[in-house]
Amino acid sequence: MPEKWVGKDALFKSPKKKERHTIEGLGDVWIHSLTCGQKDEYETAAYQVMEGTREVKMHQARALLILWTVHDQHGNRLFADADLGKVAAMDSWIAEPLYTKARRLSRMTAADMDELVKNSGTIRSDGSVSGLQPPSDGPAPGSTPS
């Protein structure tokens, strides 16, 4: 079989991975992979580097991944950044399959994710987290363009 090489334009134009997910008794959502840049933003939001070691600073790692990767039927993010606390409070029978698919589609290993979530803490009562930067694939629901 002859080798097939890909050019950069094909890579730049390649679609994001996505997978339809049915939530029993509720309906369907799309789970999208993160882009390379979004994955960097996610890891920046979830880690801090102190004296050469990585430490968890973001205890809502599962909720944040769900927040950034769950989309509606039109391809728009389903959750706004302000929904982080509500996503974190979602029952695990709904959240865990969403998280698992998002992690798989974004090529995140279980060991990577376990390190992110092992040191839980609390977030503000309004559900917000300081320093949270949304992924750059368009505005979050309910946001106004600047």
Q: Which structural class matches the secondary elements?
A: alpha+beta
Instruction: Give the low-pLDDT segments.
Output: 119-132
End-to-end Cα distance, whole Å, is 52 Å
Q: Can you count the helices?
A: 6
- Helical fraction equals 25-40%
Q: Identify the CATH homologous superfamily of the domain at 18-117.
A: Phage tail assembly chaperone gp13-like
Q: Could you tell me the radius of gyration in angstroms?
A: 16 Å
What shape does the CA trace take?
Answer: globular
In CATH, the architecture of the domain at 18-117 is 2-Layer Sandwich
Biggest sheet features: 3 strands, antiparallel
Oligomer: single chain
Number of strands: 5
Provide the β-strand percentage band.
15-25%
User: In CATH's first tier, which class of the domain at 18-117 applies?
Assistant: Alpha Beta
What sequence of helices (H) and strands (E) makes up the elements?
HEEHEEHEHHH
> What is the CATH third-level topology name of the domain at 18-117?
rbstp2171
Sheet with the most strands: spatial strand order: 1-2-5
Give the overall pLDDT as a whole number: 79
